Amino acid sequence: MAMMIPYGQRVTPDDRTTATRGLMRPRPSGRALRVTLAGLLAVWFALPLVPLLLWSVANRWSFPAVLPTEWGLDGLATALAQGGLPVFGRSFLLGLAVAAIATPLGALAARALTMGRVPAARLVSAILLAPLALPAFVAVMGLTIVLLRAQVPAPAAVLLLLVAAALPYTVYTMRVAYAAHDLAYEDEARTLGASPAHVLWRVHLPLVAPGLARAAFLAFLVGWSDYVVTVLVGGGTLVTLPLLVGSYAAGVGNDAVVAVLSLTAIVPPLLLLLALGRFGRRYPTARFAGPTASRSPKGSP
Fold this sequence. Notes:
CATH superfamily: MetI-like
Structural class: mainly alpha
InterPro entries: MetI-like, MetI-like_sf
CATH topology: MetI-like fold
Number of strands: 2
Mean pLDDT: 79
Strand order of the largest sheet: 1-2
Largest sheet: 2 strands, antiparallel
Strand content: under 5%
Order of helices and strands: HHHEEHHHHHHHHHH
Low-confidence stretches: 1-8, 283-301
CATH architecture: Orthogonal Bundle
Family: Belongs to the binding-protein-dependent transport system permease family.
Oligomer: single chain
CATH class: Mainly Alpha
Number of domains: 1
Distance between the termini: 30 Å
Subcellular location: Cell inner membrane; Cell membrane
Domain ABC transmembrane type-1: 88-276
Helix content: 55-70%
GO biological process, one term: transmembrane transport
């Protein structure tokens, strides 16, 4: 149903926005259904964390007791005594380093593939996505020999392999982002006299920022949660949080320590995911009058 405007009254953009929001406002029943489904999904994902939360504050939990028989923080004390904080910081820096390298590389590759500037684009795409098809153990064992003969330090070798493992995720995510990217904004900025650096920082990056954030999040998860590459290539010289969790989980009677370390491993991805959920709803606009900007006809104010 069209919005009725009295003759002679000028329609402002605010009026159009208000009318559009009124027509597209969801029905109460549909909103209640979405809220209910979201609540059920949240409960479904939170249920596995309940035993971890209980074990993290339990000094003893004997069968068949429903709740811990002795409460305490021995698990937290043991995790801190075994270097939990330095290991946490090391894992966090490794995830950030992987994201910092794999995200721009994936964005450059995705832009070139999307814009059709790469010969044999299908072959290049297959090579970039190959780490997803190959088992991690097989790929790592083959590359480890090459890195050892090249005398690459263990931390640098781990970082290189994790960047290669994260590239498929960043390339695919950024290809989706560039598929919806309109190059007319950049062309308009150049027409208006913007320099290449200005187009990059003030036009291009703000428009693809949500895609870059999602790609960086996936790359961070690869570096943060890796176990196979770190244990095989690092050779014990680079101890990360997954390695510490695995070492305690292999023993008996370390349930409280494993619970504390596991909960610690959940915190950074969860915080980044919440931040990504808020940031992903905001698509920054370029700071110039784009090609779709309205222009007043001659003689109008």
